[in-house]
Design brief:
The protein has a single domain, classed as Rossmann fold, CATH 3.40.50.150. By secondary structure, it is α/β, with parallel strands linked by helices. α4 links the parallel β2 and β3. The longest helix is centred in the first third of the chain and has 26 residues. Keywords: Methyltransferase, Transferase. Pfam families: Methyltransf_25 (PF13649).
Length: 217
Amino acid sequence: MAEPSYLAAVRESYDAVAEDYVKIAPARFREDALARGMLAAFAELVQANGRRPVADLGCGPGHVTAHLNSLGVAGFGVDLSPKMVDIARRTYPTLRFDVGSMTALDLPDGHLGGIVAWWSVFHTPPEDLPVVFGEFHRTLAPGGLLLVGFHVGDEHLRPERSYGHPVSYDAYLLLPDDVEELLRRAGMVVTARLMQEPSQSLKRPQACLMARKSEHS
């Protein structure tokens, strides 16, 4: 299957910003206690469900992957950007990081106990989300868990610069009800939501949805 055309712009843009992104994103993550709380609940539920691996898809420089491992899950990272993966491997040499795309995961059916997509569906056109969520469903084991975070809204953004560099990707704000419906169509049931309203440190509302694949699918 041919690679979706938008992925080239995402890959090139994140290769360009990688060194500056890593100076900012991990610090923001350390300040986000509510989101880390969702990850802690996710990790506890994954462990209660067995010891299958957890994929951090769109892992960037690897800080969320490392955090998942600190919570006791066997997490590994996948990212579209080779430069991000290189940084992750250098920063966390004992962990696994692979270059890959959420649209075509190089993983067997039913392999994963969990998937984290931490603000990494941001650049996927909404019409392509069924392909991504279909891959999530395919690679999750029955009863496997998904945690997806995203910026809330109904806008198509075309930033020209990010993290001090020119970028060529598009970005999409999503409505939680729309994401929940797409997950339902893909065979997953949302079991929890976290909504964060804008604040001094948060420009836009954000959402985390936790979903579970049916035991019988």
